[in-house]
Amino acid sequence: MKKQIKIDFVSDVSCPWCAIGLQSLQTALQRLDGELAPSLTFQPFELNPQMVAEGEDITEHLNKKYGSTPEQAAAARENIRARGEALGFTFNMDKRGRIYNTFNAHRLLHWAEAEGKQTALKKALLTAYFTDGENPSDTALLVRVASSVGLDAERAQAILDSDEFAEEVRAQERFYQQAGINSVPAIILNDQHLISGGQPPEVFEQALRQIAGL
Known about the structure:
Layout: E1 3-11, H1 16-31, E2 36-44, E3 56-57, H2 58-66, H3 70-87, E4 98-99, H4 103-114, H5 118-131, H6 139-148, H7 153-160, H8 166-178, E5 186-189, E6 193-196, H9 201-212
Parallel strand pairs: 1-2
Antiparallel strand pairs: 1-5, 3-4, 5-6
Helix pairs in contact: 1-3, 1-9, 4-5, 5-6, 6-7
């Protein structure tokens, strides 16, 4: 009998290490296919909740937020690109020039969970931003991506045109902030065990084995 395990993946769709962490986690889960029955839920975290509508140049943003020089930012981007490539995820750094607000993306992800399409939408949004260089705050893009994974486009548009799920997303954000989560990805197993950062697949596999008693 497969062992049940609950996985809450706290992340943002504009976080490159979240894309890497998800690829690593899914690689580990594939290795344990047949042994585990995972329940994976994506929980909201905004890296830049006060981001203006038009976004911000990524190099300027990193300099302002972390004090990174252009050279340091370039080295970090190359590290991220290489890590992604090793896991089968494509970061087209030349296409990703700006950082955007992601609150509406999180509202759609909240809805997608109830529709059984949350993982598909999460992966499609990460690809849209990091691989295709698109704007995850753009309503037309969000509707198109939602439709591409089998969600109803008219319903997605209606959600984005309203404040639906806004309070639910904010409540979840507060919950994880109050629990001490201040950086992402944060992967919580069975509500008790925390794995932080874009760890290699081996780290996830070992933790999953230990916690599930495999």
